[in-house]
Amino acid sequence: MKHLSLFAFTALLAAPAFAQDAALVIGNENYDNASDISSGLDALDAAEALAAAGFATSSGGDLTAEAMRALIAEFYGRTEMPGRSVILALGHFAHAGEDSWLLGIDADAPTLVGADRAGVPVATLLRIAAERPGGALVLLGTEERRIELGRGLAPGLGRIDIPQGVTVISGDAETVAAFAAEAMENRALSAAGLAERAEDLAAEGYLGTGTPLLPERIGPSLPVATAPEAAAPAVEAEAGFAEERAVWETARSIDSKAGYEAYLNRYPDGIFADAARAAIADLDRPADPAAQGLAAEAALRLGRGERRQIQRDLTTIGFDTNGVDGVFGRGSRDAIAGWQRQNGHAPTGYVTGPQMEAIAAQAAAQQGQVGTGAVQQGDAERLDRLFWEETGATGDEAGLRAYLRRYPDGIYADLARERLAGAGGGLGGAQSTDRADWDRAVRRNSAEGYRDYLAAHPDGAFAEDARQILSGRDVNAAAEAERRRAEQVEQALGLNSTMRSMVEQRLSGMGLKPGRADGNFDGDTRRAIRRYQQARGLPVTGYLSQDTVARLLVDSF
After folding, report:
1. How far apart are CA 305 and CA 303, in angstroms?
2. Max Cα separation, the chain?
3. Tens digits of per-residue pLDDT, 81-94?
4. Signal peptide location in the record (predicted)?
């Protein structure tokens, strides 16, 4: 291929005196946990050429991810004024979909979740370049070398979304380095002409043909005395470019369709004409809610603690995030989208600042309802104690059974059952035939059996029990069907023994007496779950559901 030096290109890219040209050069060659990129450090040769051409150059070789971020921050600070930008980056890249990262030399099998820590997003480099449309060149080089990557990442550059006005040339690291370092004679190539010379590389993005990608500068060494006729047009050309750039910068600062059209009316074939038309097209394009949501959430710069709080709040108001770990995975995104859908927002799965506040407010209100429920629970316990004093505390069997009918999971339920179990047939004056006939009816467990008991003992110790059983048999059938559904829901959770033991530990820590924390959900555990569900305003079934487990998790913090 025909090679083109970055030194020569920077003469082409040179700017008017009021501008600040800036260059960023990163050459990563010697990786700690991957094969070396053979020509990575060759990028530093181009850095010297850029600096000699008057570019404020930020450069470094064999950089960790942290060092790259610091260097990029330095470079970005040099692009506040108008000017041109050159970004040259060589090293190992990784990608996932349309997201790509330049990896630091300390990268160690990064996963998709850890990619931002292991490297720098290529999208960030492109966004910086996009601030100088029509005057930005990005060169990216890598090699197919061994590198271990974790879940969600693939080696190399993926498909990148190139902003308007940015020229991107990419390919083999050695070829990119040569393209950036060898000499060329023509200093006035358009973006299309530049791409044509990059025969073995991919050239994408802004490829205008009408004007130089960045105009040639008339340097101070121009022999004014021997060529005065040439000096005046050159000075006029530079002044004209300065005026056009000033109009363009004004249009960009306004960032409206009218502003860009005003530029085009004055400079229909101007250097920034393509960028202006692209900006108008972007403004006419319907807004993408998902992209807006992503940008809004990114602007919040949420820390892991803040993400955990959002997950807790969503769980509190009934949206399962599949864990409270500070990582917004599929479960969290689905929960956010579900909340957005329920509250009349576009279900993007990305949270905005106002939405974050609304979620927190709803969670606080829900916690307030739980607090109110606690007060109501206190009243319920007071009534529980009063009824015990009137019935079970007297010690007779009828009183104990009356208490258990009203409060099967009450404060004194365990005590009542213990007394009944130890009393035999002699409690409360119940005669032996009364007790024997009742036991027989219970064993038969049929409507006919309970009617036989009532016929023999219309005023017996268990007569009220028999009448309630007979009147509620249909209700009992429905309750049994509901119990079976709740049991199936719990089984579908697939909780292992460790998780079941953890649930019992949580219940025990709340003083709900679930029995031994052995993962075996016996009668004590079921009563503890019912008590917890009742206190938290959940459906009282005695079986775990996703909502019950989620609330237990929230209550543990």
Report:
1. 5
2. 136
3. 878 888 999 999 99
4. 1-19
Joined together, the tokens standing for residue 197 give 């010379």
Distance from C-alpha of 533 to C-alpha of 538, rounded to nearest angstrom: 5
The angle that helices 523-535 and 497-509 make with each other, rounded to 10 degrees, is: 60
- Given a contact cutoff of 8 angstroms between Cβ atoms, the answer to whether 27 and 44 are in contact is yes
- Single-letter residue type at 379: D
Residue 292 binned pLDDT confidence (cut-offs 50, 70, 90): confident
CB atoms within 10 A of CB 353: 11
DSSP classification of residue 82: S
Is the overall model pTM greater than 0.85, yes or no?
A: no
pLDDT at residue 323 above 70? yes
Cα 549 to Cα 476: distance, rounded to the nearest angstrom? 27
Residue type present at position 506? R
Helices (H) and strands (E) in the chain, counts: 23, 10
In the predicted structure, residue 96 carries a pLDDT above the cut 60: yes
Is 527 exposed, middle or buried (CB count within 10 Å of its CB: 0-12, 13-18, 19+)?
buried
d(CA 536, CA 454): 40
Q: Measure the CA–CA gap between 529 and 525, rounded to whole angstroms.
A: 6
**Torsion angle defined by CA atoms of residues 351, 352, 357 and 359, in that order, rounded to the nearest 10 degrees:** -30
Q: Is the pLDDT of residue 231 over 60?
A: no
